[in-house]
Amino acid sequence: MPEINYLWTPPAPVSLPVRGTGARFPVNRLFFVGRNYQAHAIEMGSSVDKASMRPVYFTKSSANLALSGGTAPYPPETRDYHHEMELVVAIGEPGFRVSESSARRMIYGYACGLDMTRRDLQATAKARGNPWDLAKNVESGAVCGEIQPAAGQVLRNGEIVLRVNGEVRQRADLSDMIWSIPEIIADLSSYYHLQPGDLIYTGTPEGVGPVRPGDRLEGSVQGAGKIEFEIGQAE
């Protein structure tokens, strides 16, 4: 096979540590579920009727994934940068148009995640009917902790909590999710051929709010470990 002559060095593969092993989880795509906790939907000015609605999704570039324990600068062009604590599902097997009952086989494990959001830009985009990309697809705006292997296990309850500078900002239970993990995997697989390495951020509970340079975020999800992140000074 001939050597490829790249114009410049390609980016290194994106990966996450796997707890209890020396292996790395190679990251493929980042999917996010919007409005999966009723109380959060209400605090954002809407509500969800599961009987008549399907989950809402958006994506972020894997190049914007940041690892737990790191620091990233407060992003440009915003004055209202928000935290959103989430459970992350790590996909370990391919699947397309899978049933809820077979979705569990695709679960490799779980992690804690932060979906960071330029809330003022999101509000403007909503008002104008524009895409959310500038609000959501922020550099270092998808934070993720180490992967906790849990092949085939479905987390249905357990505390999810986020503290900012030691103060509890978000606290709920996974049982509060509108759509369960099997429901999310099955529904998302009707749109995409899900692949090993895909990460699904399953939505955030109520209590989202602003962060400032110097703030330290610490979160945990029962069964999915912990996450830590610090907001640096604006560039």
Automatic annotation (TrEMBL):
Keyword flag Cytoplasm: no
Alphabetical UniProt keywords: Hydrolase, Metal-binding
Official protein name in the record: Fumarylacetoacetate hydrolase
This protein's record includes keyword Ion transport: no
GO molecular function, one term: metal ion binding
Organism of derivation: Thauera aminoaromatica S2
Domain Fumarylacetoacetase-like C-terminal: 31-230
